[in-house]
Amino acid sequence: MKNFLIIGNSVACLGAIESIRSTDKDSSITVVSDETYPAYSRPAIAHYLAGEIDEGSMLCRDEDFYKKMNIETIFGKKAVRLDTKNKIVTLNNREKVHYDRLLIATGGTPFIPPFKGTGKAHILTFTAWDDAKKIRERLDGVKKAVIIGGGLIGLCVAEALERLGVEVIIVELADRILSPALDEKASGILAEGLKEEGIKILTQDTVLEITGSKTKVSSVTLKSGKKILCDMVIVAIGVRPNMEIAQGTDIKVDRGILVDDTMQTNIKDIYAAGDVTQSYDSLYGTSRVTPIWPRAYIQGGIAGLNMAGHAQKYPGGFDMNSLVFYDMPIMSVGIHTPREEGFEILTKWEPEEKVYQKLVLKDGVLKGFIIVGNIENAGILTGLIKEKISVENFKERILEEDFGFTSFPKELRDKKLREE
């Protein structure tokens, strides 16, 4: 019998619980979370804010999940100190929790830059369920909102607020929105679509100061000198790995908590999974911070199996972004905007249909792609990247409208059929 302790209660935690319980029905599992909710879908908070789903639809598992899995939960309490030698975690109420094996799955924390006015009550973030609730509570009388940041979080909250009738202005420091996930062309298509819906976008600018009273924002001043009157400000610049619990310990960290291919840290019996980690990227061949929801679940599952004594290696992952804004589907996977020589790029653009496809290859192998408008074949392309299959003999076919499994050369089709 072991004592498993998991800090954090998002999708990596669920992966770990389900893996542990698949092999160990009896050992104790304790989950500590500073939030008060059962595990919920963080990507769904924009839909909750817009009123498109109710609270019940936010949950990732049935309400009796923890009971069925025989999990002890400590919700609404924060893990503040970790004693790696004596295997003790101290909570903010001074309670001490002992463990035999520990999983750190604390996710990310919003980054708020040091501009003037960050103490104003109407300056909000948007990464958690409580953030969405705070915004909903304060919407009365809000006519115009400024979103600082044109990344995924910023665009999600912008669409939700626009659907609620709020005038939205996005302020982005980079030269385009979603710059880490999209190339210039795809970003431009998306930006045009957002503008058609009434969302204003200001790029290559940033907020220097936020003015207002203790309870209400009145304006923001940009680096360009422009002043924007507004009723609400939401900081959505991005998140950083929440490594606070590892600080002051001998756990090795870089941009995230460093883990090996079993998701174990440099300290025996301490594992990490999800957005808090810096783990192996199979395309770049190095460890990177990649905050992706499905990847967090997979990492949690790998960590759980190893914690339970069943050796399992994490094969590595790669960037995958699947987005839908105003019914416009977009996917970017892998290395989509290479900064080095030696890559081959194939593109297709159909302006009337607003369909854009971009393939990035190296030595005949697909390394990444961007698709806007028609993502029907995204699963096939992702599989080609994962399996590192040469597409040299049929690469031109990939951009054709009727491309599919039957477009593969016969020998490759036969091989895939044998594998299935």
How many E strands?
Answer: 26
Q: Main beta sheet: strand number and arrangement?
A: 5 strands, parallel
Structural class: alpha/beta
Spatially, the strands of the biggest sheet line up as 3-2-1-7-19
Overall helicity = 10-25%
Please provide a written account of the structure:
This protein has about 425 residues and is of the alpha/beta class. It has helices at about 10-25, 45-50, 65-70, 130-135, 150-165, 185-195, 295-305, 380-385, 410-420, and strands at about 5, 30-35, 70-75, 80-85, 90, 95-100, 100-105, 110, 125, 145-150, 165-170, 200-205, 205-210, 215-220, 225-230, 230-235, 240, 255-260, 270, 275-280, 285-290, 320-325, 330-335, 345-350, 355-360, 365-370. A five-stranded parallel β-sheet has the order 3-2-1-7-19. The chain is globular and about 65 Å long. About 40% of the residues are buried. The model has no long low-confidence stretch (mean pLDDT about 90).
